[in-house]
Amino acid sequence: MKQILLVTDGCSNVGMSPVVAAAHAKSEGIAVNVVGVLDHGDVGELGASEIDEIARAGGGLSRLVNTRQLSQTVQMMTRKTVVQTIQLAVQKELKQVLGNGSIEALPPEKRGEVVRVIDELGETSGLQVALLIDASASMKPKLAAVEEAIHDLMLSLQARQGKSQIAVFHFPGSRHGDDCVLDMAWTEHLNGMHSIFPKLQMGGTTPTGPAIMHVVDYYLRGQDGETGRKSRYGTDGMMGDYVV
Amino acid sequence: MTTSFKLELRRGTIVVGKWKGGRYRVERLLGEGANGKVYLVQKDRDWYALKVGADAVDLQSEINVLGTLAKQKGPGIEPFLFDVDDLYAPNGKEYPFYIMRYVRGTTLDAYLKQQGAQWFPLVGLNLLGKLARLHKSGWAFGDLKVENVMVADYGHVDLVDFGGVTAIGKSIRQFTEIYDRGYWNSGSRTADPKYDLFSFAVLCIQLHEPKRLHALTKELLPQNRSTLDLSGLLTSSSDLKPVAGWLKQALEGGFADAAEGAEAWRLLMHRRDTRKSSATPGWLKGLAATTSVLLAISIYWLLRNMM
Fold first, then answer.
1. Average pLDDT, stretch B223-243?
2. What is the pLDDT of residues A23-77, one digit of tens each?
3. Which of A14, A53, B170, B239 is 20 to 30 A distant from B92 in Cα terms?
4. Do A151 and B222 touch (CB under 8 A)?
5. DSSP H/E element including A8
């Protein structure tokens, strides 16, 4: 299961529409969740509707919260989206078996069995969450809360029985021409990791759309890259022991 | 993040189950959990609690846990799942609901305010007993907090809202930050008996030192929160002094499960120095005060009549 979690506080203003980018993500099987962080001032009507629409296009959830609720919201959203992703897959199967896709339409006993399967899969299947953090100037006072939320999410994911990984990105990049910068590659723990965003230079434009595309790209390349690296190790002789 | 949803059932509404046809008359709203609203309802003159949810999968997940628990009928586990069905709301939409035992009583903090803090040790022991039964059958309660503990006459304890109940070894399904071991950087969010005992200790602190606990969550940086801060609070609280050692041990994961914790708690309650803390019982003080007032009035009358 793959998710992107976008944390932002306003409107995108450069490059491709984030709604289109989110739809791209969805078509690659990546759900996009969006959290709008408020705190003094607000995201504006335009910001709020964009946040809502990105999540809708990305097949995920959206919430507007203040920093104090951030950790809990991120944790709950991720969990809910896992259930939703599995639910969609299960409903597809149901459609083939029963000719009726909705779990609500089942009588309570049957529903119980289906939900048992959903819960089991939700707990045990592999999960990747890429966090995409808006680091434009207005987000600066909220970054501490964002870091806390990331640590908190990792803690919740580690409690799962299935393998869970997170990666962290922020945007815009500090240099010109970068839409998005990778802060932390896929990892299963944050032990000893105190600062995820060291010396972040904040400011500039808000290229939300291109940043989402960058992460989708990372998802696709990342897996290719991994296998590529492995085979390289193989030819280097590092995996020679395994070759019979 | 509670999922609040618009559905409201008015007093007198008759709820009819779509699949099994059970009829329930709505009396009033009892409370709201993370997965839905709980109403007091009546059927054939018996009272029940009806929980209605917005999301069929979320609520069913909770029902599954209750169903499994109900099957593991052991000594002291009362039946609590009576009916599962869907209802048609006034707006024409369908919502899933289930019927459980109606738990009479008041919330833990209200009970101690009304009946007096001297009930706390017994209520604590009874609560540990409830948790011990869950642990014995392979579950952790998960979302243990003041609001989820109901107390009835003579310190009888019941747990409500089973949305957080999790099989041991899986990730806790629902929790509340300040009661959460992970929030205090003191362990994982994987369900185990020690998780509940940690929450139990925070619950005791919440009951006696709510302001200082709240202040602690405000002033500490997330990465600096630790069991030590909670222990520090314990040792400096006069109310918690008799159980401070026990609570510290629970925070540090020193008890294997609630049964072991309950045993240690019981021993503590029956030690004389724990009980001796207030030497003169309240009623005796009251009696003394009344007597002196009566005496004063009599003297006054006497003096006036003599004049």
1. 91
2. 999 999 999 999 999 876 666 777 888 999 999 999 999 999 988 889 999 999 9
3. A53
4. yes
5. strand A2-8
Q: Please give the CATH superfamily to which domain A2-239 belongs.
A: von Willebrand factor, type A domain (3.40.50.410)
ipTM for this model: 0.81
Q: Using CB atoms and an 8 Å cut-off, which of residues 201-220 of chain A contact chain B?
A: none
At B265-288, the pLDDT tens digits run: 999 988 765 655 544 555 666 667
Prior bond to A107 cis, omega within 30?
no
A67 touches chain B (CB under 8 A): no
Q: What are phi and psi of A122, to 5 degrees?
A: -60, -30
Task: With cut-offs at 50, 70 and 90, classify the pLDDT of residue A231.
Answer: very low
Q: With CB atoms and an 8 Å threshold, state whether B190 touches A72.
A: no
- For chain B, what is the mean pLDDT? 88
Residue B276 token pair: 């001796």
Residues 6+ apart with CB under 8 A from B128: B200, B258, B261, B262, B265
- Inter-chain touch A72–B169, beta carbons under 8 Å: no
Neighbours of A227 (CB within 10 A): 9
For chain B, the C-alpha Rg in angstroms (whole number) is 23
Return the domain boundaries, chain A: 2-239
For A107-131, the pLDDT digits (tens) are 888 899 999 999 999 999 999 999 9
Hey, of A77, A82, A152, which one would you mutate to test binding to chain B, going by the most B CBs within 10 A of its CB? A152
Q: Which residues of B are catalytic?
A: 143
Contact, B47 vs B41, CB < 8 A? Answer: yes
Backbone angles phi, psi at B290, to 5 degrees: -60, -45
Identify the domain containing residue B284 by its residue range: 279-307
Q: Is A83 at the interface with chain B, CB within 8 A? A: yes
Give a yes or no: residue B6 inside a domain.
no
Question: For residue B8, is it within any domain?
Answer: no
